[in-house]
């Protein structure tokens, strides 16, 4: 190949190679204001690369294609099979702990932490490696004469002699080949490192403790989430129940207004106002029914089951509440903080960070090690060469060897200078330990705040429940009196409507305060780290 053609080919190759990286820009969105058109398989699964010019294409606009490989979970057959059964809170929590994906993720994280401890412990053991290397070699000379330069007359005579010899034999071709392999077994064993591996292992064990704590915390969060969602759904269902009763009262008032109008004792305005009150109650009922569906979806989502699963929940509207004004003692708060999952996990992080500081310090100390190697070598080489002066025939040289060797070495490695890298790593470990301590203190303070806030919320909700109960009793008496007076032609529709609305608001407030107290009790139990055993004085 001549030089110009080679240059053109080399330039073309360079251009192609340089364009490989930027060529992938074609698989990115074309512009910031145009939809992305991905490449798809026959099932709709998005795959790397640009969209094909034929086959499945993305619809116009910014709607992504449907991937048929992604399936929506079907309803839980074990739940739907028990039609008519009302699930209690304990049953729902038990289902959630098995079905919620968060528990599996936390379990996997805890297992990974345990494996990390095992990996760290393996550094105490020697490392054995086996290696086999083999190969084949072949060379061939096309017979071209070597160029030998030797100045003077002697050199000219020698060159002429070589030329005459090659002309006589017609040129000699050289060939050589060989094959061989090496089999080795190596040993590496770190005997002593002044506590680095011990410190790293301690840090990994603290990490495992933290992962196990967070596994428990994941279950606590699920229990708390299901509890809150269960009570929120029960509160929404209770609102529907009371609104249905309020709708019956509104219709009674409307029937009384129509009866008075029919007998000439009432007015059209009275009948219209009564009908308006009925319509307003119907609207509030429809909205409350929508809230029931939304809270039900929140409940099944907290459980981690399919949203398409339908079930009935237990009615807990008649649970007695204890209204004693008892406060948590400082000793109880101290005990509660010390068993919270987030505080325990933060404490484990502090211990792990302190161990990392010890590991960083050990990098300044020497290491004692031992290493060994056992090797077995086999080889075979055949070479045909140019004959020497005075030789009758070209000699053939055959080389073969089989060798077994072994070596074991022991030594000490002393770090001297690394540009300050170890000092910087030590400072980083110390900073992380200081940050972990600060995080622990902040977590403790936040825990105390959450406990006190939950306790106050519980007392407030219990007081509101008691006050709303008295208000409901008073408004019910007022409504009954206003309704009876209106039916007898004494009262007015305005007073009756006001009494009706007051009764409805008081009833709903009493119901909401009841479930708010249950939620507050659950929040206090979660804040104190005792969801499975709430304080006796707050047991709802």
Automatic annotation (TrEMBL):
Ranges in coiled-coil conformation: none
Membrane topology recorded in Swiss-Prot or TrEMBL: Peripheral membrane protein
Highest taxon, organism lineage: Bacteria
One CC-aspect GO term: cell outer membrane
SUPFAM superfamilies: Outer membrane efflux proteins (OEP) (SSF56954)
One Pfam family matching this protein: OEP
Main location: membrane
Keyword terms, alphabetized: Cell outer membrane, Cytolysis, Hemolysis, Membrane, Transport
Function comment: CyaE is necessary for transport of calmodulin-sensitive adenylate cyclase-hemolysin (cyclolysin).
The family this protein is said to belong to: Belongs to the outer membrane factor (OMF) (TC 1.B.17) family.
The protein's name: Protein CyaE
């Amino acid at each position: 190949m001549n030089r110009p053609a080679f240059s053109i080919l080399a330039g073309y190759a360079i251009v192609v190679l340089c364009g490989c990286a930027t060529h992938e820009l074609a698989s990115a969105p074309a512009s910031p204001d145009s939809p992305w058109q991905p490449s798809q398989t026959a099932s709709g699964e998005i795959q790397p690369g640009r969209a094909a010019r034929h086959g499945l294409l993305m619809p116009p606009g910014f709607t992504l294609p449907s991937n048929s490989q992604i399936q929506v979970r079907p309803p839980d057959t074990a739940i739907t099979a028990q039609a008519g059964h009302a699930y209690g809170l304990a049953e729902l929590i038990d289902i959630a702990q098995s079905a919620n994906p968060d528990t599996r993720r936390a379990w996997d994280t805890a297992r990974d932490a345990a494996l990390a401890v095992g990996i760290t412990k393996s550094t105490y053991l020697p490392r054995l490696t086996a290696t086999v290397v083999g190969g084949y070699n072949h060379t061939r000379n096309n017979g071209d004469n070597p160029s030998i330069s030797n100045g003077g007359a002697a050199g000219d005579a020698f060159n002429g002699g070589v030329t005459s010899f090659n002309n006589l034999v017609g040129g000699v071709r050289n060939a050589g080949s060989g094959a061989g392999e090496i089999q080795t077994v190596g040993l590496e064993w770190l005997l002593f490192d002044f506590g680095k591996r011990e410190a790293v292992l301690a840090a990994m064990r603290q990490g495992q403790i933290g992962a196990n704590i967070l596994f428990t915390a994941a279950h606590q969060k699920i229990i708390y989430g299901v509890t809150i969602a269960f009570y929120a759904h029960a509160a929404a269902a209770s609102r529907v129940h009371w609104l249905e009763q309020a709708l019956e009262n509104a219709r009674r008032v409307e029937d009384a207004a129509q009866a008075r109008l029919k007998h000439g004792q009432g007015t059209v305005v009275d009948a219209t106002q009564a009908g308006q009150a009925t319509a307003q109650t119907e609207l509030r009922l429809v909205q409350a029914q929508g809230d029931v569906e939304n809270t039900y979806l929140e409940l099944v989502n907290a459980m981690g089951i399919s949203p398409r699963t339908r079930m009935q929940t237990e009615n807990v509207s008649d649970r007695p509440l204890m209204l004693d004004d008892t406060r948590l003692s400082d000793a109880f708060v101290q005990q509660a903080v010390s068993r919270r999952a987030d505080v325990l996990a933060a404490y484990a992080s502090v211990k792990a960070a302190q161990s990392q500081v010890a590991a960083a310090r050990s990098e300044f100390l020497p290491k004692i090690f031992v290493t060994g190697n056992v090797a077995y070598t086999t080889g075979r080489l055949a070479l045909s060469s140019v004959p020497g002066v005075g030789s009758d025939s070209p000699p053939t040289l055959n080389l073969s060897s089989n060798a077994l060797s072994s070596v074991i070495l022991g030594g000490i490695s002393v770090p001297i200078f690394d540009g300050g890298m170890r000092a910087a790593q030590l400072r980083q470990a110390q900073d992380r330990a200081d940050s972990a301590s600060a995080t622990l203190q902040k977590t403790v303070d936040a825990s105390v705040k959450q406990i006190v806030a939950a306790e106050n919320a519980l007392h407030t909700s219990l007081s509101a429940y008691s006050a709303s109960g008295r208000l409901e009793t008073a408004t019910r008496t007022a409504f009954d009196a206003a309704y009876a007076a209106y039916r007898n032609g004494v009262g007015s529709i305005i007073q009756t409507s006001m009494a009706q609305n007051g009764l409805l608001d008081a009833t709903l407030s009493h119901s909401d305060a009841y479930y708010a107290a249950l939620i507050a009790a659950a929040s206090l139990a979660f804040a104190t780290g005792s969801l499975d055993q709430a304080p006796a004085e707050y047991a709802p």
